């Protein structure tokens, strides 16, 4: 279940910083053009994420989806559900790569659920299919996805990771995490 504080006390999504908002407008312009990204951004984190992690995942996914980006995640609870809900609430696309052979554990906010039947090996599919990864929180699954992303020379941005892997870019706060993700999308088009 998604943490209750995912959208703030008033029920509204906190707006991104001015810098992030400007970058997200550029992303939205690209996403409404023929040069749009067809590949999703990976948002990864623990299935048992707390309120802070789930709120961060919701905000990042909402901001990216609002700019027209699809997100991909593990499709279950915690940070994954919060990210899916953020994308869903922004009218975007949330893809869940599930470890099971069916969708019985898929969160209800997914646009597309992909049951793989390969267990935690599905982490490789999430890391490989993403433009880059946004890691929120920790846990062994998240660490494995971050490591695979870095091995495959993808950018990995993190907030409150359990470990600091070489090449990991750590944000001070959620606004900086959104800024890093939006800026990376702009650089990918340069």
Which key terms come to mind for this protein?
190 residues, alpha/beta, Rossmann fold, 7-stranded parallel β-sheet, 6 helices, disordered N terminus
Protein described:
The chain has 190 residues and is α/β, with parallel strands linked by helices. The chain has a single domain (38-189), classed as Rossmann fold, CATH 3.40.50. Helices cover 41% and strands 14% of the residues. The protein has a seven-stranded parallel sheet with strand order 4-3-2-1-5-6-7, with helices on both faces. Helix 4 (122-129) crosses helix 5 (140-151). The longest helix has 16 residues, at 51-66. The model is unreliable at 1-6 (pLDDT under 50).
The amount of helix comes to: 40-55%
Average pLDDT confidence is 94
Tell me the total number of β-strands: 7
Highest-level CATH class: Alpha Beta
Q: Kindly report the CATH topology.
A: Rossmann fold
What's the N-to-C terminus distance? 39 Å
Major pleated sheet:
7 strands, parallel
Provide a brief overview of the structure.
The chain has 190 residues and is of the alpha/beta class. The chain has six helices and seven strands. The chain has helices at 18-31, 51-66, 79-89, 122-129, 140-151, 174-189, and strands spanning 41-44, 71-73, 94-98, 112-115, 133-136, 156-159, 169-170.
Task: Compile the SSE list and pairings.
Blueprint: H1 18-31, E1 41-44, H2 51-66, E2 71-73, H3 79-89, E3 94-98, E4 112-115, H4 122-129, E5 133-136, H5 140-151, E6 156-159, E7 169-170, H6 174-189
Parallel strand pairs: 1-2, 1-5, 2-3, 3-4, 5-6, 6-7
